[in-house]
Automatic annotation (TrEMBL):
Keyword ATP-binding attributed: yes
Domain Helicase ATP-binding: 19-177
Gene Ontology terms for molecular function: helicase activity
SUPFAM superfamilies xrefs: P-loop containing nucleoside triphosphate hydrolases (SSF52540)
Keywords: ATP-binding, Helicase, Hydrolase, Nucleotide-binding
Organism listed in the record: Acididesulfobacillus acetoxydans
InterPro entries attached to this UniProt entry: DEAD/DEAH_box_helicase_dom, Helicase_ATP-bd, Helicase_C-like, P-loop_NTPase, RNA-DNA_Helicase
Keyword Manganese: no
Pfam families with a match to the protein in the record: DEAD (PF00270)
Limits of the Helicase C-terminal domain: 236-421
Protein name: Helicase SKI2W
Superkingdom per UniProt: Bacteria
Length: 533
């Protein structure tokens, strides 16, 4: 495909391929790393639709992204051409380009909103949110019920099973879906772990230092390691790696950490402070009418520091976003929602923890979560390299060891389809029983189950054919007397033994050591019988 220029940019091959599919009138899924320029495909589609007098909907998973796209499109196409519909704002709802949260679009398709008859395209930004445990079902319902005449453009970060997702959408919509994938980032990322003892190091060096230091001081009961805090990490990177998004998985801690840093740090010059002061006055009016939370936010913003989470008032969030965009905020403590699709000048990201509370308990970050958030670092045309820093405290290494994230081991998207009271009421009000049954059969979960069934049947057919042809099959297949199950467990046992032996005697007697010894004994009993060869 020859070179193609759009808005002064020479397009990358995947962008040219995506635009060609749009021009051909196809529905398209674009899966590419954060920062590679997949949003350009959406911009092109919006421009094309408006030029031909068509109506188009742009959905986003969070209000911050909806607000940013509204501002960007309003500047480009004019205020009369763009509307926004979120839980906070309703403006120009009859506009040819309407931006909304995915929940609102889902409600419109369930209730068969008449205005959808005039829509030619629906853009699902961050379509991989289909995997979100709490809200993923919204994307699934939206895709299932989207009118057949509406073409789809889905934008996603890199996902492991993009072909499976595309095949599902193609099967329920009875149309060919073009899948465009790009795996190379435009701005490379470097990943580091940080402790006060080591500074910024690789994963391998982190563990090497911990093991060497642990062995050297195993005779002492007290911890040999210094406690590491967010202030230590910020001080280590503030000279060369700002602006930074500092991810904290707690609204309360976002505020607390911002205040702690602001107590002893100021990143703004007097002229910049005046710009921040004026921005607050423009947004909230005279200080006599400000809320306590707005005054609190102003105090840290005047130091070039801020916090951002879903609990802020809409006007407060908008102001923080604008100040960050204008490079008047250098350290932003935020929850993971700020990792979604927002194009801000971020040079690096930090993780306060590599574990998060998921509503049930604390669990390690998944690969796709880590890389989605890390992907905010390093913006095309601004940075040569982006940086990801994870804070680690050696004092908790045994209890919560940091995981090594691997881009080639991204978790596949899975169905989060849920039957809610709201869905039942809406479906029974608008569909008959046969239609409702079809609706459930179209879920991503049903598609995955069907594909798994086909794969298992194929494997069974191969096994039966091999058995018929007289090939030897282990009589203990499925038990630990079969080498296929015995060998992996034996390697696990050997690994546990080595780790246990490396512990100091005092640590062998602690809860962690006793639990490891118990597991070793259990595996030894399990593998007591040698496998048949």
């Amino acid at each position: 495909m020859s070179k193609r220029i759009y808005r002064g940019y020479t397009l990358d091959p995947f962008q040219r391929e995506a635009l060609a599919a749009v021009d051909a009138g196809q529905s398209v899924i674009v899966a590419a790393p954060t920062g590679t320029g997949k949003t350009l495909v959406a911009d092109y589609l919006v421009e094309k639709a408006l030029e031909t007098g068509e109506r188009i909907i742009y959905t986003a998973p969070i209000k911050a992204l909806s607000n940013q796209k509204y501002k960007d499109f309003k500047i480009r196409f004019g205020e009369e051409s763009v509307g926004i519909l979120t839980g906070d704002i309703v403006l120009n709802s009859g506009a040819p380009l309407l931006i909304m949260t995915t929940e609102i679009f889902r409600n419109q398709v369930i209730t068969e909103e008449p205005s959808l008859n005039n829509v030619s395209h629906i853009i699902f930004d961050e379509i991989h949110w289909l995997n979100d445990e709490e809200r993923g079902t919204v994307w699934e319902e939206s895709i299932i019920l989207a009118p057949a005449h509406v073409k789809i453009l889905g934008l996603s970060a890199t996902i492991a099973n993009a072909r499976e997702l595309t095949a599902w959408i193609s099967s329920i919509r009875q149309e060919e879906i073009a899948l465009i994938e790009e795996h190379k980032r435009a701005v490379p990322l470097e990943y580091y772990y940080y402790t006060k003892d080591t500074g910024l190091v690789s994963y391998e060096k982190l563990w090497r230092y911990y093991r060497d230091k642990s062995r050297a001081v195993q005779a002492f009961d007290e911890s040999p390691f210094a406690t590491t805090t967010h202030l230590d990490l910020i001080r280590a990177i503030q000279r060369h790696y700002l602006p930074v998004l500092y991810f904290v998985f707690s609204r309360k801690l976002c505020l607390e950490k911002a205040r702690e840093l602001a107590a002893g740090t100021n990143y703004l010059k007097p002229a910049q402070r005046r710009l921040v002061e004026q921005a607050f006055l423009d947004q909230f009016g005279p200080q006599d009418y400000w809320s306590a939370s707005t005054k609190q936010l102003r105090r840290v913003c005047l130091k070039g520091i801020a916090f951002h989470h879903a609990g802020l008032l809409p006007a407060q969030k908008v102001l923080v976003e604008e100040l960050f965009q204008r490079r008047l905020i250098f350290v932003l403590y935020c929850t993971e929602t700020f990792s979604v699709g927002i194009n801000y000048p971020v040079k690096s990201v930090c993780f306060d923890s590599l574990h998060k509370f998921d509503g049930h308990g604390f669990r390690p970050l998944a690969n796709h979560e880590f890389f989605q958030m890390s992907g905010r670092a390093g913006r095309r045309g601004i940075d040569e390299t982006g940086y990801s820093f994870a804070l680690v405290d050696f004092n908790y290494m045994e209890k919560n060891p940091p995981q090594k994230f691997q881009l080639n081991k991204l978790e596949p998207l899975s169905s989060q389809f849920r039957l809610t009271y709201n869905t039942v009421l809406n479906l029974t009000a608008t569909l008959n029983l046969d239609q409702i049954e079809t609706y459930f059969k179209k879920s991503f979960s049903a598609f995955n189950a069907h594909q798994s069934s086909l794969n298992l049947k194929a494997e069974l057919a191969v096994t039966e054919r091999e058995a018929t042809e007289g090939r030897q099959v282990c009589e203990h297949l499925g038990s630990y007397r079969c080498p296929l199950k015995y060998e992996p467990k034996l390697k696990e046992l050997e690994r546990l033994r080595r780790t246990y032996q490396s512990l100091a005697p005092r640590k062998q007697n602690r809860i962690y050591g006793r639990e490891m010894a118990r597991k070793i004994r259990s595996l030894e009993r399990l593998l007591a019988h040698q496998p048949n060869s």
